[in-house]
Structures are given as C-alpha cells and as structure tokens.
Amino acid sequence: MAVLETIVIAFWAMLPAYVPNNAAVLAGGGRPIDGGRTWGAKRVLGDGKTWRGTAMGITAGLALAAVLTVLADGVGSALGFAVPEFTPLAALGLAGGAMLGDILASFLKRRTGRQRGAMFPGLDQLDFVVVSLPLVALLDFEWFREWFTLEVILVVVVLTPILHVTTNMIAYKLGLKNEPW
Ligand code: CTP
Ligand code: MG
C-alpha cells in the first residue's frame, strides 16, 4: 500500500472519532455527567464532561460517518483507491469510543489530582484512539480487519497527536477552548 493511500484511509476512517471531541467543545455545557459528585476529595469526572457535549459529540460523529459513507464511492473513484464506508456499528464504535476515551481520561486526570483543563501529555492526544479502536474491533470485527491494517493503525498513532495538537491550538486561538491542549 502506498504511503499516501494509507494516510488518506487512516484519516478518513478516523474522522468519525476525531469530530466528536471538537463538537463537544462547541456544544458543551449544562449538567456534568458526574452530577457534581466526588470520589475521595476530587470530582469523579469534573465540569468538563457534560451530557450535552457527549450527546452532541456522538451525534456529530455518527452524522459524519453517514455523510462519508454516501461520498465514499465517488471519492474512491476520484482517488483511484477505495476509502471506507462505515457500517452503523463501526460508526458507533468510533464516535462512542472517542467520547468514552475522553471521559475515561478525565477520570484518570481527576484521580491523579489534575484540575479540570490540566494537561496530561500522551493521554490527551491518544485517549480516544485507545478506546475507539478496540471498541470498533469488538462491535464490527470484519470491518475493523478490512480497514485497520497494521499500516493504517501505525499512521493513526502518529497522525492523531499531530492533528489533535493542531486543531486544539486553532480552537484555543479562536477562543473556543480555554487551553491549547
Ligand atoms: N466537553 C463536554 N463534554 C464532553 C467533552 C467535552 O461538554 N464529553 C466540553 C466542555 O465544555 C469542556 C470542553 O468541551 O470544558 C473541552 O473539553 P476537554 O478538553 O476534554 O475538557 P476539559 O475542560 O479540559 O476538562 P478535563 O480536564 O476533564 O479534560
Ligand atoms: Mg482539556
């Protein structure tokens, strides 16, 4: 597989997992998932994880997967190689896994004494990959095996932190996010 082809497939396949975090930033607010509860002296998740942000994040990821699925044939023909169409379960694994990974990361941040918005290098950039890929494999293994080859997974692991840092920096500059990470 050519390198460029692998990068395009990795990016396309991960888009439904990339978009939920950004949608949550735009749509967040309202009731926190943990309802203000604490565990030990710290919040379970914190005010940065809300029902509305999570619901809108998953919805945005599913909607994008549906749009990409409609476009896949045309884009594939134009590029000269196939790009993924998303099965409903694959889309759910990507979008739901991304939000779940982000929530688990906040849980870990609170347990390690980090305040809301504190940086946790590594975890901040890869939390959603670590949860969404296994979840996709669990929900639709055939789809996972077809698209997430070893090469694609390697590109995802390298590309995701770069994209994450870039988009968060843009969101910070635009005043949408309080911190650049
Ligand atoms: N957000 C949300 N619900 C989510 C994820 C994010 O409402 N499930 C919104 C919140 O307004 C949050 C913002 O998006 O403040 C930025 O997300 P993130 O950086 O993940 O949260 P932080 O506020 O930095 O909190 P944490 O330290 O827990 O990551
Ligand atoms: Mg944050």
From TrEMBL:
InterPro entries: CarS, CarS_archaea
Example of a GO cellular component annotation carried by this entry: plasma membrane
A biological-process GO annotation: glycerophospholipid biosynthetic process
Keywords noted in UniProt: Cell membrane, Lipid biosynthesis, Lipid metabolism, Magnesium, Membrane, Phospholipid biosynthesis, Phospholipid metabolism, Transferase, Transmembrane, Transmembrane helix
Pathway in which the depicted protein is active: Membrane lipid metabolism; glycerophospholipid metabolism
One of the record's GO molecular function terms: CDP-2,3-bis-(O-geranylgeranyl)-sn-glycerol synthase activity
Function recorded in the entry: Catalyzes the formation of CDP-2,3-bis-(O-geranylgeranyl)-sn-glycerol (CDP-archaeol) from 2,3-bis-(O-geranylgeranyl)-sn-glycerol 1-phosphate (DGGGP) and CTP. This reaction is the third ether-bond-formation step in the biosynthesis of archaeal membrane lipids.
Family named by the database record: Belongs to the CDP-archaeol synthase family.
The name this protein goes by in its record: CDP-archaeol synthase
Encoding gene per record: carS
